[in-house]
Amino acid sequence: MKKHTFLIKSTKNQSFGTAFCIKQNKNGSYFVTCSHVVEDCGEDNLIIDNYPAKLIAKGSREDIDLAVVFVEGLFDCSVLKLFNESVEIHQEFTIDGFEPYKKGSYKLEKLKGSIKKISQIYSNAKSIDTYELNIGDGDSIERGYSGSAIVCDGFVVAVATDRNTNGKQAYAVPIGYLGEIWEDMPDDIFVKISKNGLEKLKSELIEENSPLREITKKVLWFVTFFRKHPFLSILFIILYFGYERQEFIFSKLQSLKIQEKNQTIVRKQLLKGVVKDIDGGIELENVIVRILEKNLKFTTDKDGKYQFSVDGNEGDIVELDFEKDDYILCDKNDIKQRLGEERNVLLCKDF
Questions:
Q1: Under a CB-based contact definition with an 8 Å cutoff, are residues 181 and 66 in contact?
Q2: For the segment 197-208, what is each residue's pLDDT rounded down to a tens digit?
Q3: Span 262-276, average pLDDT
């Protein structure tokens, strides 16, 4: 089986990290790693699998800590698929990375974890999202995992950048920021979900060589057959499961939260904002924010922030309710917010 994750190291010093393949052409392969890995190794001293690696694009280690390198002549690798969508808190992932083993050697190890929280980094008058990661019991991220792919349900959603001292928590930058550092990025780098959804999922939902791929093909075949021949399918289900069975539980294909509704793809959308006191501009903690028609609620944190992950299409309008002792909404128009939108909400003292 071809591998997708490689050791990237320096020919001049002891620095090293992890890189993963994202694209190939007739001349070689493109890899993603971290900007600080490139800087520590030296831009002119990079090698992957004993091939020299040429720097294509690089961000800053202070914010978008991503880099792209090209390795001419390296074809013996598989390509990971990139998905430019927000993840959910508590979503599980896997990560393959290198760590020091014995002197002069390195060990590739797969770890599991989950997304702990989504935060913002402010640097150079701009802000970017960052994912804080929890690593599974008994495991820890070691030095060398920088540049490793964070893989959720077969797709790369982020790249590991930093870790704390005990390795139980780490940080990752969303893979979507790749387009901000790579000026000539090819259009086919990210997986695109088309309106028909199912046909695209057949080839792109599960990465190659995954044992889930055959299962997914069978499920998708059944879904397609059901849509074309609903009565035959219902008869088959009744005969197979018996008349007494009332519920039929179908496997959800990964956890992309994609469903087909009136020929339009419906997916999870983020809706977030900050609640402030209009008089002092102070962020208000412990404000209860509700999405009325969806029966969802969230309590603002110490920075006054709220965030929801909601089924819907970007731009859909939902109605909100804000509840805090001695406060009311300053502007009644603030009860409505569009999915995918981030904004400030002002509360006034209720005298």
A1: yes
A2: 544 554 544 444
A3: 72
